[in-house]
Design the sequence.
């Protein structure tokens, strides 16, 4: 729910009038770097075009490459993809059953002589146990990276998230608490790491390492310096929305709200709980239908399966069809990423119920009312059967035929009229219906585009 005003407009006009749109000396990028580092309590801040390109720079910055491993979070795929960009093998640690965050005990069990780093996510603004993870990293002489894409201004035990590890990365895309369309920032107190990351972000005429042009623009930074000051106010509103949702499930015996760790100042992003309908004899499909009947706006299951079950990791073809980097002669480990690798994550993910709380307070009230109504409908047995519009049925027909089309991913584009209807009813509506019926995952792939991923 970002608010953009005259100060942002004035800054953008200054950029246009300057005629210097990227990395202007003493410009907005430099100011944004300094302001962000100060706000996070870090020595260095490095701007990037996206958080993803900054993450891609991290393995190389610590000297990790072919034959090495980095321990990753199984709930999201971003770290593992960044590893593959550097010929590094991602190794998956399990999560805690209550917080869904990386389990330090599982991390410890995954460390080998090939391990170069631990990569943890502060999922949906909740802190992971970074104190324990840092202790493990230091004891084994490896690095700790923090993915703070959801966790700007979050704290754990009085310390800003992003400063517990050797590097922390933040995302500024349009769906984050600090929304600039795109953009990212890495923070570190390590002078050498800051230099190594910069080498990989800025493409020079005579580069020292394999790099590219991943710079942020002055336009993004011009808005960023203003929005950075507004984010704490946004977070206060989002926290109120989260509080209302916590209250909505407080008396429900079969929905467990996600608890923050002690001494964790949460950076509210998504609110979530775990579905345990078996405690009350309530079927998951019935509750999903109840959510839709009550007004929608909630998703279930998040991405349905752990990241290691995605096609890019199941099929060892990150670089064409040679099997690299998994079959690299420099790699002496084994890749076996089948079901059962992270049993807690596999149990938790399908049970997730979640909603975006980055919204005005009135929408937060509505979301809490929707959730309470859905709980009542499910408990009273007053849930109407799911019905589908013509557009919904068209999507279902495409998915039913997907097995006859190209495997892994099929994209279909809707015309403007169909999209208006589809968007009005919410993309989660059809996505939830699909998950009950077919072994495919529907994901947003661009304007009026969705991708169907074969999970069979």
Sequence:
């Amino acid at each position: 729910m970002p608010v953009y005003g005259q100060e942002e407009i004035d800054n953008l006009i200054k950029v246009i009038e300057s005629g210097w749109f990227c990395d202007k000396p003493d410009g907005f990028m430099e100011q944004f770097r300094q302001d962000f580092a100060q706000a996070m309590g870090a020595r260095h801040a490095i701007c990037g075009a996206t958080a993803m390109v900054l993450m891609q720079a991290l393995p190389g910055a610590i000297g990790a490459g072919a034959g090495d491993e980095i321990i990753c979070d199984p709930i999201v795929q971003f770290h593992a993809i960044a590893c593959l960009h550097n010929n590094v093998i991602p190794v998956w640690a399990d999560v805690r059953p209550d917080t869904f965050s990386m389990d330090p005990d599982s991390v410890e069990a995954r460390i080998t002589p090939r391990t170069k780093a631990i990569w943890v996510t502060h999922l949906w603004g909740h802190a992971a146990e970074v104190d324990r993870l840092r202790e493990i990293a230091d004891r084994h002489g490896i690095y700790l990276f923090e993915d703070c894409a959801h966790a700007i201004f979050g704290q754990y035990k009085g310390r800003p998230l992003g400063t517990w590890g050797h590097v922390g990365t933040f995302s500024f895309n349009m769906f984050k608490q600090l929304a600039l369309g795109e953009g990212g920032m890495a923070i570190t107190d390590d002078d050498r790491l800051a230099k190594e990351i910069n080498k990989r972000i800025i493409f020079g005429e005579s580069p020292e390492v394999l790099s590219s042009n991943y710079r942020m623009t002055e336009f993004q930074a011009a808005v960023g310096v203003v929005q950075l000051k507004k984010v704490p106010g946004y977070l206060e509103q989002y926290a109120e929305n989260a509080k209302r949702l916590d209250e909505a499930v407080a008396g429900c015996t079969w929905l467990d709200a996600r608890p923050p760790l002690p001494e964790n100042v949460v950076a509210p992003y998504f609110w979530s709980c775990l579905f345990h309908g078996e405690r009350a004899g309530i079927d998951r499909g019935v509750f999903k239908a109840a959510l839709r009947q009550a007004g929608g706006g909630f998703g279930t299951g998040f991405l349905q399966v752990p990241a290691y079950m995605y096609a890019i990791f199941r099929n060892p073809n990150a670089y064409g069809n040679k099997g690299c980097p998994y079959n690299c002669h420099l790699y002496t480990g084994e890749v076996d990423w089948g079901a059962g690798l992270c049993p807690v994550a596999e149990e938790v993910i399908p049970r997730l119920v979640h909603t975006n709380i980055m919204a005005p307070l009135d929408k937060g009230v509505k979301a809490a009312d929707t959730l309470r109504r859905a709980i009542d409908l499910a408990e009273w047995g007053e849930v109407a059967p799911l019905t589908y519009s013509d557009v919904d049925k068209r999507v279902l027909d495409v998915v039913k035929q997907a097995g006859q089309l190209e495997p892994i991913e099929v994209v279909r584009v809707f015309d403007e009229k169909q999209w208006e209807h589809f968007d009005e009813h919410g993309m989660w509506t059809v996505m939830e219906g699909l998950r009950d019926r077919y072994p495919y995952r529907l994901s947003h792939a661009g304007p009026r585009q969705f991708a169907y991923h074969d999970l069979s």
